[in-house]
């Protein structure tokens, strides 16, 4: 995915700011010790600050709410093939506030997350500040069976489902940028089964197919997602299959193999849940396969992705010179990382995406390659870390008779700070 260049600030409407700050104020007032009748000293509940975050809990423990925040700042410098700086991106990449826990019953949990930075608002595609990221309610029948309703990430490729706060590199790969399913509103289910020493996780979703916090859309097209994960050597330590890098130095080899299938019926955006609006609805299918392996500080992650659609190009009826297409094509990536015992880590990644000939009349009929090296200091695991990354991007316009790749380079300094 191309590195974002610096862009002029878009002002969030007052109504959006008011909604965000009202939400924050309500939580602060409701959760503060004063509102709980000085809960830290009386018998109505308790307040604690630990590795989970700021924890508010009733005396009977049936209600427990955790508040966390995170800040991601980065400085990106893009260079042309001649070595000149072509663009810069000095920005708050992410600024988020998150609440989670259980209410009334330990089986009834929730996840609420709002964002404040421009890059998180999806403003360019939707033309409104989309502050809501997660608003999900879960019911767990038991530790191995759960259903949920609301808005959150679809069970797509692993790198997308892994939190951006738990990535080894400052950003996800260009394969994720081109094919990920992102967030959507609907119903989801999760089941875990054990076969001998192996673990099988099954996830499914039925959702709107139009992305997060969308206005009502005519028609009845929905999206259907299914994912299966097989862990042949048992569970990773402390859920290590859903954070990048082997920070915990697995004593024995651990592996997870996964396959995801997704069908979006009559979708309205170029990448399904993401991207600008199409001029006419289209249906598309996405397939992912990914593999993760960890052992003794080493971690390998690889994925393959493909999106297909019949008649992917749509034309603006008011101006037939304008076309927008479902991005159809394939991509693959691989990354290898190593965590030293003394809070340092190094990694290398190579990624490729390529559009199919059916979108030859659009500017997305390109092949893109990206490679990079990264060094990381984990000051407090993934919660507080600092990264330096350098790499290249080669973009080839496949519509030309003799396509030649155009090289560019980037350097990125990234910090992650939160609880």
- Oligomeric category: single chain
| Whole-number mean pLDDT | 89
Spans where pLDDT lies below 50 across 5 or more residues = 1-13, 33-42
Strand residue content: over 45%
| Number of helices in the DSSP assignment | 4
SSE topology string: HEEEEEHEEHHEEEEEEEEEEEEE
Number of E-state strands: 20
Order of the strands making up the biggest sheet: 3-4-5-6-7-8-9-10-11-12-13-16-17-18-19-20
What kind of sheet is the major sheet? 16 strands, antiparallel, barrel
C-alpha Rg, in Å?
Answer: 22 Å
Give helix % range. under 10%
| Secondary structure category | mainly beta
What can you tell me about this protein's structure?
- The protein is mainly β.
- The chain has four helices and 20 strands.
- The protein has helices spanning about 15-30, 125, 160, 175-180; strands at about 45-50, 55-60, 65-80, 85-105, 105-115, 130-140, 145-155, 185-195, 200-205, 225-230, 255-270, 275-295, 300-310, 315, 325, 330-340, 345-355, 365-380, 385-395, 405-419.
- Strands 3-4-5-6-7-8-9-10-11-12-13-16-17-18-19-20 form a 16-stranded antiparallel barrel.
- A hairpin with a 5-residue loop joins β2 and β3.
- It is globular and about 70 Å long.
């Amino acid at each position: 995915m191309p590195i974002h260049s610096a862009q002029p600030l878009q002002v969030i409407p007052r109504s959006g700011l008011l909604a965000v700050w009202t939400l924050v104020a309500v939580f602060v007032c409701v959760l503060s010790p004063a509102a709980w009748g000085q809960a830290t000293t009386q018998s109505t509940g308790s307040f604690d600050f630990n590795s989970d975050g700021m924890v508010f809990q009733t005396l009977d423990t049936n209600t427990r709410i955790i508040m966390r925040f995170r800040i991601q700042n980065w400085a990106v410098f893009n260079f042309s093939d001649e070595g000149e700086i072509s663009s810069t991106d000095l920005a708050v990449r992410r600024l988020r506030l998150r609440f989670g826990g259980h209410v009334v019953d330990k089986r009834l949990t929730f996840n609420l997350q709002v964002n404040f930075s421009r890059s998180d608002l999806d403003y360019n595609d939707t033309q409104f500040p989309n502050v809501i990221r997660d608003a999900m309610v879960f019911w767990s029948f038991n530790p191995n069976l759960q259903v949920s309703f609301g808005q959150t990430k679809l069970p797509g490729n692993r790198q997308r489902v892994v939190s951006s706060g738990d990535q080894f590199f400052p950003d996800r790969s260009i394969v994720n940028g081109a094919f990920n399913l992102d967030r959507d509103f609907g119903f989801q289910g999760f089941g875990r089964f054990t076969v001998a020493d192996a673990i099988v996780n099954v996830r499914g979703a039925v959702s709107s197919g139009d992305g997060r916090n969308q206005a009502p859309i005519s028609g009845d097209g929905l999206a259907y997602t299914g994912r299966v994960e097989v862990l042949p050597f048992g569970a990773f330590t402390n859920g290590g299959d859903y954070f990048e890098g082997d920070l915990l130095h697995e004593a024995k080899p651990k592996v997870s193999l996964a396959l995801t299938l997704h069908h979006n019926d009559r979708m309205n955006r170029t990448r399904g849940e993401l991207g600008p609006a199409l001029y006419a609805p289209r249906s598309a299918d996405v397939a992912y396969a990914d593999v993760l392996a960890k052992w003794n500080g080493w971690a390998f992650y690889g994925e393959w992705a493909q999106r297909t659609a019949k008649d992917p190009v749509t034309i603006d009826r008011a101006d037939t010179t304008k076309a927008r297409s479902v991005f159809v094509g394939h991509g693959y990536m691989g990354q290898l990382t190593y965590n030293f015992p003394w809070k340092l880590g190094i990694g290398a990644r190579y990624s490729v995406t390529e559009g199919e000939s059916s979108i030859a009349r659009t500017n997305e009929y390109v092949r893109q390659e990206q490679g990079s090296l990264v060094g990381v200091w984990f000051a407090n695991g993934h919660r507080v870390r600092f990264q330096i990354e350098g790499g290249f991007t080669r973009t080839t316009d496949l519509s030309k008779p003799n396509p030649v790749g155009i090289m560019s380079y980037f350097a990125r300094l990234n910090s992650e700070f939160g609880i």
